[in-house]
Write a structure and sequence with these properties.
The protein is of the alpha+beta class and 212 residues long. Helices cover 40% and strands 30% of the residues. The protein has a single domain (2-27, 79-205), classed as Protein Transport Mog1p, Chain A (3-Layer(aba) Sandwich), CATH 3.40.1000. It has helices at 2-17, 21-55, 61-70, 140-154, 198-201, 207-211; strands at 76-77, 80-81, 93-98, 101-105, 112-113, 116-126, 129-138, 158-159, 168-175, 178-185, 190-197. The strands form two sheets. Strands 3, 4, 5, 6, 7, 8, 9, 10 and 11 form a nine-stranded antiparallel β-sheet that branches. It has a two-stranded antiparallel sheet with strand order 1-2.
Length: 212
Amino acid sequence: MKTFIRIVCLGLCLALAAPASWAKTEDSAKKSSQSKSKSKSDSKSKSKSGSKSKKGKDPSKGKSKKGASAKAPEGGFRNLPWGAPLTALKEPDLREQEGELKYYTVPDDDMDVMGAHMREIVYVFCKDKLSGVLTRYDGQVNHLILLTKLSDTYGTPLESPPNVRGDRSWRFDVSEGSSIVMEYAENSSTGALAWMAKGQLTPCEQPEQAGQ
């Protein structure tokens, strides 16, 4: 269990906190494309709504920013939203702790996730709030099921080139503050999938790393 947690956290959690160069490049290209399309649509909408804006102010403008800042990051795992307390888990079993990061499993947990069978499901809590979920699975069939369903739900992921061992990874951005990262080792036919709320994990980053 400890080996699994450390491998997944170091590999997947760091990928979320500091995306690799391939992810940054893809992000820049994606944002540039979105910015161009947005500017075109904005110019069209301004010409159409010019007469309406003169008549009066939109009463929803002042409220939208306030409401958005108060909301927690979108996403979560199953029916558990990010920031949920430990009491949201049924009979949680503490498996490991590193500072204010705690890792729990649930006895008799439902190991079926998106139609694939998981070998392990670990719930990550930062300051006793749900901040992520780490899972591990076996087999190419399960991998293809998960990759297909994630792509259908969240669109084309950011994909890294294979490393020297042939391992590959994908990142799906669920929202601005929530991502899903997948890794798969073809040689061993094993994979890992992590749901993470980046903002929720920030308070539990190692302080010694910031000071160095």
